[in-house]
Amino acid sequence: MLSRTADHLFWMNRYTERAENTARLLDVNYQTTLLPQSEAVARAGWQGLLSISELLPAYKEKHDAILAKEVMDFMVKDEENPSSIVSCLSAARENARAVRGTLTTEVWETQNQTWLEVKRMIKQGEFEADPSQFFEWVKFRSHLSRGVTVGTMLMDEALHFMRLGTFLERADNTARLVDVKFHAVESDFYGIANGKDQEYDFYHWSAILRSVSGFEVYRKVYRDVIRPERVADLLILRPDMPRSLHASLNEVVANLALVANDQSKETQRRAGKLRAELQYGRIDEILATGLHAYLTQFLDRINDLGAHISRDFLVPVPV
What's the mean pLDDT when you consider all of the chain? Predict the structure, then answer.
Protein backbone atom coordinates (compact mmCIF):
# COMPACT_ATOMS: atom_id res chain seq x y z
CA MET A 1 0.00 0.00 0.00
CA LEU A 2 1.18 3.55 -0.77
CA SER A 3 2.46 5.26 2.36
CA ARG A 4 0.32 8.33 1.63
CA THR A 5 -2.85 6.23 1.50
CA ALA A 6 -1.88 4.41 4.71
CA ASP A 7 -1.22 7.80 6.33
CA HIS A 8 -4.70 9.14 5.49
CA LEU A 9 -6.42 5.96 6.72
CA PHE A 10 -4.38 5.89 9.94
CA TRP A 11 -5.11 9.54 10.74
CA MET A 12 -8.76 9.37 9.70
CA ASN A 13 -9.37 6.85 12.46
CA ARG A 14 -7.07 8.57 14.97
CA TYR A 15 -9.03 11.80 14.60
CA THR A 16 -12.39 10.03 14.88
CA GLU A 17 -11.23 8.26 18.05
CA ARG A 18 -9.77 11.52 19.40
CA ALA A 19 -13.10 13.30 18.94
CA GLU A 20 -14.84 10.51 20.85
CA ASN A 21 -12.29 10.51 23.65
CA THR A 22 -12.38 14.30 23.98
CA ALA A 23 -16.16 13.99 24.32
CA ARG A 24 -15.69 11.34 27.02
CA LEU A 25 -13.17 13.49 28.94
CA LEU A 26 -15.40 16.56 28.77
CA ASP A 27 -18.50 14.61 29.72
CA VAL A 28 -16.96 13.09 32.86
CA ASN A 29 -15.66 16.51 33.91
CA TYR A 30 -19.02 18.13 33.20
CA GLN A 31 -20.82 15.43 35.22
CA THR A 32 -18.46 15.72 38.19
CA THR A 33 -18.86 19.53 38.28
CA LEU A 34 -22.58 18.94 38.91
CA LEU A 35 -21.62 17.34 42.26
CA PRO A 36 -21.40 19.55 45.36
CA GLN A 37 -17.89 21.06 45.33
CA SER A 38 -16.11 24.36 45.80
CA GLU A 39 -15.36 26.70 42.91
CA ALA A 40 -11.62 26.14 43.41
CA VAL A 41 -12.00 22.34 43.11
CA ALA A 42 -14.12 22.71 39.95
CA ARG A 43 -11.56 25.10 38.43
CA ALA A 44 -8.72 22.69 39.29
CA GLY A 45 -10.66 19.93 37.48
CA TRP A 46 -10.92 21.98 34.28
CA GLN A 47 -7.28 23.05 34.53
CA GLY A 48 -6.23 19.41 34.97
CA LEU A 49 -8.23 18.48 31.88
CA LEU A 50 -6.49 21.15 29.78
CA SER A 51 -3.11 20.19 31.19
CA ILE A 52 -3.42 16.45 30.53
CA SER A 53 -4.66 17.23 26.99
CA GLU A 54 -1.57 19.46 26.54
CA LEU A 55 -3.84 22.41 25.72
CA LEU A 56 -3.21 24.69 28.70
CA PRO A 57 -0.75 27.09 26.96
CA ALA A 58 -3.00 27.39 23.88
CA TYR A 59 -6.04 28.03 26.09
CA LYS A 60 -4.26 30.70 28.15
CA GLU A 61 -3.29 32.57 24.97
CA LYS A 62 -6.99 33.12 24.25
CA HIS A 63 -8.60 33.26 27.71
CA ASP A 64 -7.71 35.02 30.95
CA ALA A 65 -9.51 32.71 33.38
CA ILE A 66 -10.31 29.00 33.52
CA LEU A 67 -14.11 28.84 33.32
CA ALA A 68 -16.16 25.73 32.55
CA LYS A 69 -18.03 27.28 29.60
CA GLU A 70 -14.88 28.68 27.98
CA VAL A 71 -12.95 25.41 28.41
CA MET A 72 -15.81 23.43 26.85
CA ASP A 73 -16.16 25.90 23.97
CA PHE A 74 -12.39 25.75 23.38
CA MET A 75 -12.34 21.92 23.37
CA VAL A 76 -15.57 21.44 21.40
CA LYS A 77 -15.99 24.10 18.73
CA ASP A 78 -12.83 26.24 18.49
CA GLU A 79 -11.58 25.59 14.96
CA GLU A 80 -8.20 27.16 15.82
CA ASN A 81 -7.65 24.39 18.38
CA PRO A 82 -6.54 21.35 16.31
CA SER A 83 -7.64 18.98 19.09
CA SER A 84 -11.19 20.33 19.45
CA ILE A 85 -14.04 17.97 18.56
CA VAL A 86 -15.03 20.07 15.51
CA SER A 87 -11.40 20.20 14.29
CA CYS A 88 -10.96 16.43 14.76
CA LEU A 89 -14.17 15.58 12.86
CA SER A 90 -13.14 17.99 10.09
CA ALA A 91 -9.66 16.41 9.84
CA ALA A 92 -11.17 12.89 9.83
CA ARG A 93 -13.47 13.89 6.97
CA GLU A 94 -10.63 15.50 4.98
CA ASN A 95 -8.48 12.37 5.35
CA ALA A 96 -11.42 10.23 4.26
CA ARG A 97 -12.00 12.46 1.21
CA ALA A 98 -8.33 12.11 0.20
CA VAL A 99 -8.68 8.30 0.00
CA ARG A 100 -12.32 8.16 -1.10
CA GLY A 101 -11.53 5.40 -3.61
CA THR A 102 -10.12 3.11 -0.90
CA LEU A 103 -13.20 3.37 1.32
CA THR A 104 -16.59 1.73 0.90
CA THR A 105 -19.51 4.06 0.21
CA GLU A 106 -20.87 3.43 3.71
CA VAL A 107 -17.62 4.45 5.42
CA TRP A 108 -17.31 7.66 3.39
CA GLU A 109 -20.97 8.62 3.88
CA THR A 110 -20.70 8.06 7.64
CA GLN A 111 -17.67 10.37 7.91
CA ASN A 112 -19.21 13.01 5.64
CA GLN A 113 -22.59 12.94 7.37
CA THR A 114 -20.94 13.29 10.79
CA TRP A 115 -19.14 16.44 9.65
CA LEU A 116 -22.24 17.98 8.08
CA GLU A 117 -24.32 17.16 11.14
CA VAL A 118 -21.84 18.56 13.70
CA LYS A 119 -21.69 21.85 11.76
CA ARG A 120 -25.49 22.07 11.89
CA MET A 121 -25.63 21.23 15.61
CA ILE A 122 -23.00 23.84 16.52
CA LYS A 123 -24.72 26.48 14.40
CA GLN A 124 -28.11 25.79 16.00
CA GLY A 125 -26.72 25.87 19.54
CA GLU A 126 -27.49 22.23 20.37
CA PHE A 127 -24.18 21.84 22.22
CA GLU A 128 -24.94 24.73 24.62
CA ALA A 129 -28.53 23.53 25.09
CA ASP A 130 -27.47 20.09 26.36
CA PRO A 131 -23.72 19.34 26.52
CA SER A 132 -24.21 15.75 27.75
CA GLN A 133 -26.54 14.95 24.85
CA PHE A 134 -24.02 16.41 22.40
CA PHE A 135 -21.18 14.32 23.88
CA GLU A 136 -23.36 11.19 23.59
CA TRP A 137 -23.96 12.01 19.92
CA VAL A 138 -20.20 12.31 19.27
CA LYS A 139 -19.62 8.91 20.92
CA PHE A 140 -22.47 7.36 18.92
CA ARG A 141 -21.05 8.64 15.61
CA SER A 142 -17.65 7.18 16.49
CA HIS A 143 -19.26 3.83 17.33
CA LEU A 144 -21.13 3.98 14.02
CA SER A 145 -17.94 4.75 12.11
CA ARG A 146 -16.10 1.79 13.67
CA GLY A 147 -19.01 -0.57 13.09
CA VAL A 148 -19.42 0.43 9.43
CA THR A 149 -15.65 0.11 8.89
CA VAL A 150 -15.42 -3.40 10.33
CA GLY A 151 -18.70 -4.43 8.71
CA THR A 152 -18.00 -3.28 5.15
CA MET A 153 -14.23 -2.89 4.54
CA LEU A 154 -12.12 -5.66 3.02
CA MET A 155 -9.91 -7.22 5.70
CA ASP A 156 -6.68 -6.04 4.11
CA GLU A 157 -3.93 -3.53 4.90
CA ALA A 158 -6.32 -0.57 4.63
CA LEU A 159 -8.40 -1.91 7.54
CA HIS A 160 -5.29 -2.78 9.58
CA PHE A 161 -3.92 0.77 9.31
CA MET A 162 -7.30 2.19 10.29
CA ARG A 163 -7.42 -0.02 13.37
CA LEU A 164 -3.82 0.84 14.24
CA GLY A 165 -4.81 4.50 14.34
CA THR A 166 -7.90 3.77 16.46
CA PHE A 167 -6.16 1.74 19.17
CA LEU A 168 -3.00 3.83 19.40
CA GLU A 169 -5.18 6.88 19.99
CA ARG A 170 -7.37 4.98 22.46
CA ALA A 171 -4.37 3.86 24.54
CA ASP A 172 -3.14 7.46 24.68
CA ASN A 173 -6.50 8.88 25.69
CA THR A 174 -7.40 6.23 28.29
CA ALA A 175 -4.04 6.85 29.98
CA ARG A 176 -4.76 10.61 30.02
CA LEU A 177 -8.26 10.08 31.45
CA VAL A 178 -7.04 7.81 34.26
CA ASP A 179 -4.19 10.20 35.06
CA VAL A 180 -6.29 13.37 35.21
CA LYS A 181 -9.06 11.83 37.32
CA PHE A 182 -6.76 10.13 39.83
CA HIS A 183 -4.78 13.37 39.95
CA ALA A 184 -7.97 15.17 40.95
CA VAL A 185 -8.30 12.94 44.03
CA GLU A 186 -4.66 12.81 45.06
CA SER A 187 -1.49 14.50 43.88
CA ASP A 188 -0.27 10.95 43.42
CA PHE A 189 -2.18 7.78 44.20
CA TYR A 190 -1.00 5.08 46.58
CA GLY A 191 -4.17 3.10 47.14
CA ILE A 192 -5.88 5.33 49.74
CA ALA A 193 -8.27 8.14 48.84
CA ASN A 194 -7.82 10.63 51.68
CA GLY A 195 -10.35 13.13 52.91
CA LYS A 196 -13.25 12.15 50.65
CA ASP A 197 -16.65 11.12 51.94
CA GLN A 198 -18.00 7.84 50.61
CA GLU A 199 -20.96 9.34 48.77
CA TYR A 200 -18.77 11.78 46.82
CA ASP A 201 -16.31 8.97 46.19
CA PHE A 202 -19.00 6.76 44.67
CA TYR A 203 -20.23 9.42 42.25
CA HIS A 204 -16.70 10.49 41.32
CA TRP A 205 -15.55 6.96 40.41
CA SER A 206 -18.86 5.92 38.81
CA ALA A 207 -18.65 9.03 36.56
CA ILE A 208 -15.16 7.96 35.48
CA LEU A 209 -16.35 4.42 34.76
CA ARG A 210 -19.35 5.67 32.79
CA SER A 211 -17.03 7.89 30.73
CA VAL A 212 -15.36 4.75 29.34
CA SER A 213 -18.59 2.71 29.21
CA GLY A 214 -17.19 0.69 32.12
CA PHE A 215 -19.79 1.01 34.91
CA GLU A 216 -21.69 -2.18 34.13
CA VAL A 217 -18.42 -3.95 33.27
CA TYR A 218 -17.02 -3.05 36.71
CA ARG A 219 -20.12 -4.43 38.43
CA LYS A 220 -19.90 -7.66 36.44
CA VAL A 221 -16.16 -8.19 37.03
CA TYR A 222 -15.76 -7.12 40.67
CA ARG A 223 -19.31 -7.36 42.14
CA ASP A 224 -18.26 -4.93 44.86
CA VAL A 225 -18.34 -1.27 45.86
CA ILE A 226 -16.32 0.95 43.53
CA ARG A 227 -12.75 1.14 44.79
CA PRO A 228 -10.10 3.37 43.13
CA GLU A 229 -7.46 0.64 42.84
CA ARG A 230 -9.94 -1.63 41.06
CA VAL A 231 -10.93 1.18 38.69
CA ALA A 232 -7.23 1.56 37.87
CA ASP A 233 -6.86 -2.22 37.42
CA LEU A 234 -9.87 -2.35 35.07
CA LEU A 235 -8.70 0.57 32.89
CA ILE A 236 -5.02 -0.36 32.78
CA LEU A 237 -4.47 -4.11 33.05
CA ARG A 238 -7.70 -5.96 32.14
CA PRO A 239 -7.29 -7.43 28.61
CA ASP A 240 -11.06 -8.05 28.32
CA MET A 241 -12.03 -4.41 28.98
CA PRO A 242 -12.32 -2.86 25.46
CA ARG A 243 -10.95 0.57 26.40
CA SER A 244 -8.15 -0.57 28.74
CA LEU A 245 -4.48 0.06 28.00
CA HIS A 246 -3.85 -3.71 27.80
CA ALA A 247 -6.68 -4.33 25.31
CA SER A 248 -5.57 -1.37 23.18
CA LEU A 249 -1.96 -2.63 23.05
CA ASN A 250 -3.17 -6.14 22.13
CA GLU A 251 -4.83 -4.61 19.05
CA VAL A 252 -1.80 -2.44 18.21
CA VAL A 253 0.54 -5.46 18.35
CA ALA A 254 -1.84 -7.65 16.30
CA ASN A 255 -2.34 -5.05 13.55
CA LEU A 256 1.37 -4.19 13.43
CA ALA A 257 2.10 -7.87 12.76
CA LEU A 258 -0.37 -7.82 9.85
CA VAL A 259 1.27 -4.85 8.11
CA ALA A 260 4.90 -5.64 9.08
CA ASN A 261 7.66 -4.80 6.60
CA ASP A 262 11.44 -5.15 6.51
CA GLN A 263 12.09 -2.05 8.61
CA SER A 264 9.38 -2.43 11.26
CA LYS A 265 11.08 -5.01 13.54
CA GLU A 266 12.14 -2.38 16.11
CA THR A 267 8.64 -0.88 16.17
CA GLN A 268 7.14 -4.33 16.74
CA ARG A 269 9.66 -5.02 19.50
CA ARG A 270 8.75 -1.80 21.34
CA ALA A 271 5.03 -2.46 21.01
CA GLY A 272 5.48 -6.07 22.15
CA LYS A 273 7.57 -5.05 25.16
CA LEU A 274 4.98 -2.47 26.25
CA ARG A 275 2.19 -5.03 25.84
CA ALA A 276 4.16 -7.64 27.84
CA GLU A 277 4.57 -5.19 30.75
CA LEU A 278 0.79 -4.70 30.81
CA GLN A 279 0.19 -8.44 30.45
CA TYR A 280 2.36 -9.35 33.44
CA GLY A 281 1.93 -6.17 35.49
CA ARG A 282 0.15 -5.98 38.85
CA ILE A 283 -1.87 -3.00 39.98
CA ASP A 284 -0.46 -3.02 43.53
CA GLU A 285 3.08 -2.71 42.12
CA ILE A 286 2.02 0.17 39.85
CA LEU A 287 0.30 2.01 42.70
CA ALA A 288 3.24 1.44 45.03
CA THR A 289 5.62 3.20 42.66
CA GLY A 290 3.14 5.98 41.79
CA LEU A 291 0.36 5.92 39.23
CA HIS A 292 1.09 9.38 37.80
CA ALA A 293 4.74 8.49 37.11
CA TYR A 294 3.68 5.20 35.51
CA LEU A 295 1.11 6.83 33.21
CA THR A 296 3.47 9.68 32.25
CA GLN A 297 6.05 7.12 31.16
CA PHE A 298 3.35 5.14 29.32
CA LEU A 299 2.28 8.24 27.37
CA ASP A 300 5.90 8.94 26.41
CA ARG A 301 6.25 5.40 25.09
CA ILE A 302 2.96 5.55 23.17
CA ASN A 303 4.06 8.79 21.51
CA ASP A 304 7.41 7.17 20.68
CA LEU A 305 5.57 4.18 19.21
CA GLY A 306 3.45 6.51 17.06
CA ALA A 307 6.62 8.20 15.76
CA HIS A 308 8.12 4.81 14.84
CA ILE A 309 4.93 3.73 13.06
CA SER A 310 5.02 6.99 11.06
CA ARG A 311 8.68 6.42 10.17
CA ASP A 312 8.16 2.80 9.09
CA PHE A 313 4.85 2.99 7.22
CA LEU A 314 3.45 6.49 6.73
CA VAL A 315 4.32 9.73 4.95
CA PRO A 316 7.62 11.05 6.37
CA VAL A 317 7.16 14.19 8.44
CA PRO A 318 9.27 17.04 6.97
CA VAL A 319 11.98 18.25 9.36
Answer: 89
